[in-house]
Design goal:
By secondary structure, the chain is an alpha+beta fold. It contains nine helices and five strands; from the N terminus they run ααββαβββαααααα.
């Protein structure tokens, strides 16, 4: 009898279907029965587990007859005498209902004294232990499904991040390269040592003063200022055209014009100019933006 209480530990790693088969083996091995039937129902959406012995295509006919009788609806363990092919068989029904699982076990015997009190006790204990093991197996299966679903979602997320990284890596590398060029140009410009005062002639001073007064940098149109800002962010001509909804030729024309106005000849110099002048001068009243 003590071995019955160890059944949940023996069935710990088994599936619900294997537990049902194991319970049938216990019942047919410990009791003098002609046939046995088990049904487990869980609280979730999983299909019930149904099994019977002998392993014929159809369950024993006495179980169908006992199920159809009114005695089958009674609570607790009941025993019904049914006639099958001229023989009187006794069918014992053991129902067990818990908040999280339910089970019905039917066993039949041709003995007129079946089941004895000892056999009834074996039935009650075996079914109770099987329901405990069945509930544990279902809970473990749910946890395994949840873990697999979480692992699948994590794999999908990692694949998405890897794909995004692969897509933007060239653009980031290009932007980093252009920023290094701009910073290098800015550093080179700012590190040019000033000429000594003795080397500067009065004519150069006057010429610089006149140039500063007479020839200020031409004001950029608003569209040219937008193009310069996007250019400084490392965007290519085609990318600038896409952002501003312009043609590639129009963008090239704006770049040529702004290069001339700010006095540069290369993209890195224009980027350095934009870094030194966060808000470059723009023409007022620029009605046509491109």
């Amino acid at each position: 009898m003590a071995a019955l209480f160890a059944l949940p530990a023996m069935w710990m790693d088994q599936t619900p279907a294997e537990i049902g088969a194991g319970l049938l083996s216990v019942l047919t091995g410990m009791l003098d029965v002609r046939a046995a039937f088990v049904r487990f129902d869980g609280a979730g959406a999983d299909a019930p587990v149904i099994a019977w012995r002998p392993e014929d295509p159809q369950i024993a006919p006495e179980f169908t007859a006992a199920h159809e009788s009114q005695a089958a609806a009674a609570a607790g363990i009941t025993t019904t005498a049914v006639e099958v092919r001229g023989a009187i068989l006794r069918v014992t029904r053991v129902p067990l209902t818990l908040p999280w699982e339910s089970a019905v076990v039917l066993v039949s015997s041709d003995r007129p004294d079946f089941p004895t009190p000892a056999e009834t006790h074996v039935l009650r204990v075996a079914v109770g232990q099987a329901v405990i093991a069945f509930h544990t197996a279902r809970r473990l299966a749910l946890e395994q499904r949840a873990r697999r679903a979480a692992e699948t979602a994590l794999q999908r997320r990692d694949a998405l991040v890897h794909s995004l990284t692969h897509d933007i890596e060239p653009a980031l590398a290009s932007l980093s390269h252009r920023m290094r060029d701009a910073l290098h140009e800015l550093s080179r410009t700012e590190s040019t040592p000033p000429r000594k005062t003795a080397d500067i002639t009065a004519e150069e001073v006057a010429a610089d003063r006149n140039a500063a007064i007479v020839q200020p940098p031409a004001a950029l149109t608003r569209r040219e200022a937008e193009v310069l800002g996007l250019l400084a962010q490392g965007l290519s001509n085609k990318e600038i055209a896409g952002v501003l909804w312009l043609s590639d030729r129009t963008v090239e024309r704006h770049i040529t014009s702004l290069y001339r106005k700010i006095g540069v000849a290369r993209r890195s110099e224009a980027t350095a100019f934009a870094l030194r002048h966060p808000a470059p001068p723009s023409a007022e009243g620029d009605a046509a933006h491109g």
